[in-house]
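User: I've been trying to design a sequence by hand for this structure and keep getting stuck. Would you show me what you'd pick, starting by listing the structure so we're on the same page?

Assistant: Good idea, let's start from the same input. This is the structure you sent:
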């Protein structure tokens, strides 16, 4: 799949549920309205969707959500998608998780062919963690992280940088990730969906974080790229990678290789734009994948050049109405 700007689309992120067992303050309001279950694709339909994309050239699949591991029987989806790893059609099957269910599932994920996972963790302070996630249990997540490591999964920790919340903690996070053998990625808050608080209060530019960190750590630029919005450095003192995801202060769109599928079968060609394509109707229209493939090709031909997020005082409202838990981040 090649889009109008010559970019090869080789990476599909799939949100398998919009539901979650946490209510992170930057992600959702406490009383979040979820999609009616009837609108959600079945696991078999999700497998068909993913397999169609793999057939069209997708080499990397990331399962996300909401919290992907709270979807009932989700491990059967991982198992069936694992066949594309075995056949060589897929290079990587991975997931982004809040870690709450990993103590249960880490071994099974490894058995399905998962080798690397992203775990979201914004703080190492238990009380702060529980305030930030509202419903999360810190000890359970730490046990999940330990289980992932014990199962031999390579772990990358994702932390959203939040002003006056975790901005004092990055040194500690870097040290801990170094000890655990994890890479770390810092993420700027993105203006997606209404939340209970004000995003201006949370927004912390990573350019500021980086120049602070450079006073204490040796950050070596690397040319490591994933085609996404992260730029990576190597921290000489720990030997681990540190990524910066800066959708608001940096333009990363020219190398974009990805599209996002929601759990209702809507394909977003760009995280920062409203345009989307319904793939559920063509999927259900026929037992053959013909209509689905036509719809995917048509959607890719509409992939926009880039996004235009802004957070400022005048535009103090979400740039997009949908939450990150819908498109999966
Ligand atoms: N529940 C899983 C988790 O937390 O890892 C997967 C889905 S979550 C939506 C994916 C990532 O998006 C997480 O790392 C989360 O911190 C991040 N995220 C959520 N809302 C965000 C926002 N408004 N701005 C930036 N990152 C956000
Ligand atoms: Fe759930 Fe992940 Fe959103 Fe937190 S960031 S509320 S864990 S979907």
């Amino acid at each position: 799949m090649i889009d109008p700007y010559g970019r090869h689309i080789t990476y599909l992120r799939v949100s398998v549920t919009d539901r979650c067992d946490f209510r992170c303050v930057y992600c959702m309001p406490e009383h979040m309205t979820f999609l009616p279950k009837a609108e959600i694709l079945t696991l078999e339909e999700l497998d068909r969707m993913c397999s169609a994309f793999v057939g069209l050239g997708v080499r990397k699949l990331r399962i996300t959500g909401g919290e992907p591991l709270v979807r009932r029987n989700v491990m059967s989806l991982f198992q069936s998608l694992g066949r594309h790893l075995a056949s060589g059609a897929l290079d990587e099957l991975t997931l982004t998780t809040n870690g709450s269910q990993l103590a249960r599932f880490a071994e099974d994920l490894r058995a399905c062919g998962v080798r690397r996972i992203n775990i979201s963790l914004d703080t190492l302070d238990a009380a702060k963690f529980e305030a930030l996630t509202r419903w999360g249990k810190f000890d359970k997540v730490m046990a999940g992280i330990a289980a992932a490591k014990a199962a031999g999964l390579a772990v990358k920790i994702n932390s959203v940088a939040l002003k006056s919340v975790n901005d004092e903690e990055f040194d500690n996070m870097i040290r801990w990730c170094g000890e655990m053998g994890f890479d770390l990625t810092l993420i700027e808050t993105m203006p997606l969906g209404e939340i209970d608080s004000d995003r201006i209060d949370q927004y912390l530019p990573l350019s500021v974080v980086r120049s602070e960190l450079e006073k204490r750590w040796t950050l070596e630029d690397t040319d490591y790229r994933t085609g996404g919005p992260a730029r990576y450095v190597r921290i000489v003192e720990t030997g681990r990678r540190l990524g910066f995801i800066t959708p608001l202060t940096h333009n990363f769109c020219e190398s974009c290789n990805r599209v996002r599928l929601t759990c209702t079968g809507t394909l977003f060609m760009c995280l920062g734009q409203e345009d989307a394509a319904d793939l559920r109707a063509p999927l259900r229209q026929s037992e053959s994948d013909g209509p689905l493939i036509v719809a995917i090709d048509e959607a890719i031909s509409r992939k926009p050049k880039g996004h235009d997020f802004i957070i400022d005082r005048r535009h103090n409202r979400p740039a997009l109405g949908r939450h990150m838990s819908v498109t999966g981040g």
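That's my pick for every position. To get oriented when you compare it with your attempt: Residues 74-87 form the longest helix (14 residues). Residues 75 and 109 are 7 Å apart (CA to CA).
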